[in-house]
Amino acid sequence: MAVDIKNLNHNQLNDLISKAQARQNELRKEKVSKLREKIHALIKAEGYSFEDIFGGARGAKPRRSGGTVAPKYRNPANPEQVWSGRGKRPRWFNDALKAGKKEKDLAI
């Protein structure tokens, strides 16, 4: 199927592009589904289960509690601003260090 794109206006061209991308996604999903079926069939033919090969439930990973961490540092200029010492340093912390303060001066 040949489409003469020179005769299409802007809206028609955008519509064609979006339809082509949608079809491309459909084809990819179909291919993934067929591949998944082949893999399951191969595993079953060898006498194993999916869990035997890949372990546990799919996508299940042990998670940490993710609880909050007590703050370690406090902004002397604004006591409401605290930092736990994890992640990217806050701007106020970097500014205080540049001003000559030490980390132990900002510790709670």
From TrEMBL:
GO terms for molecular function: bent DNA binding; DNA-binding transcription repressor activity; minor groove of adenine-thymine-rich DNA binding; transcription cis-regulatory region binding. It comes from the Bacteria. SUPFAM superfamilies: H-NS histone-like proteins. Pfam families: Histone_HNS. Residues 60-108 form the DNA-binding protein H-NS-like C-terminal domain. Gene3D superfamilies: Histone-like protein H-NS, C-terminal domain. Residues 10-37 form a coiled coil. The keyword Cytoplasm applies. GO terms for cellular component: cytosol; nucleoid; protein-DNA complex. Keywords: Coiled coil, Cytoplasm, DNA-binding. Residues 59-89 are annotated as: Disordered. It is found in: Cytoplasm, Nucleoid. Belongs to the histone-like protein H-NS family. This is Histidine biosynthesis protein. It comes from Dyella japonica A8.
